[in-house]
Amino acid sequence: MKFQIDPSHSTANFSIKHMMIAKVHGGFEKMSGTLEFDAANPAASKVEATIEAASINTREPQRDAHLKSADFFDVEKFPTITFKSKSVKVAGEGELKVLGDLTIHGVTKEVNLDVEGPTAEMKDPWGNIKVGISATTKINRKDFGLTWNAALETGGILVGDDVTISLDVQFVKQA
């Protein structure tokens, strides 16, 4: 069955250490994509997603502007972040491992997503059939060419390297 991301009911969030003491959280406001899920044969399933890099939101406009600049995402040159699955494996009851290509800042690397779901199909009040998933992964931002940083006078760095990504996505069945 083929599903499309319901962007108004989906989030793509991240967290990263700031000044080596606390995590800063943010997300992206605009995403699209598809899920082809075969419940009888999950390995035949596929997922593709596109995020508009300029839709980043960390609730701090100056930081968001810096993240959109050439120091980080360079959204003028690299307007999208994409994910395309390569394999799907059952990892347990209601759990999948999805291996795919993640492209950020023009650099593509394989990542593994730990996925809960998809949920059972549910009909919303308007007759749309929906399913949901939650997924997580961790990446090193430097692997994707996001290398900007600043040294702290007390030692250490301003921006951590490890980024935790968490996705909560609702899909609507295509007619």
Structural write-up:
With 175 residues, the protein is mainly beta. It has one helix at residues 61-68, and strands spanning 2-5, 11-18, 22-28, 31-36, 46-52, 56-57, 80-92, 95-104, 107-116, 122-123, 129-140, 159-173. It starts with a strand and ends with a strand. The mean pLDDT is 89.
List keywords for this structure.
175 residues, 1 helix, mainly beta, 12 strands
Give a short synopsis of this structure.
This protein is mainly beta.
Number of β-strand runs: 12
**What's the main sheet like?**
8 strands, antiparallel, barrel
SSE string, helices as H and strands as E: EEEEEEHEEEEEE
- What is the overall shape? globular
Question: Termini, distance in Å?
Answer: 10 Å
Write the layout of secondary structure elements.
Blueprint: E1 2-5, E2 11-18, E3 22-28, E4 31-36, E5 46-52, E6 56-57, H1 61-68, E7 80-92, E8 95-104, E9 107-116, E10 122-123, E11 129-140, E12 159-173
Antiparallel strand pairs: 1-4, 1-12, 2-3, 2-12, 3-6, 4-5, 5-7, 7-8, 8-9, 9-11, 10-11, 11-12
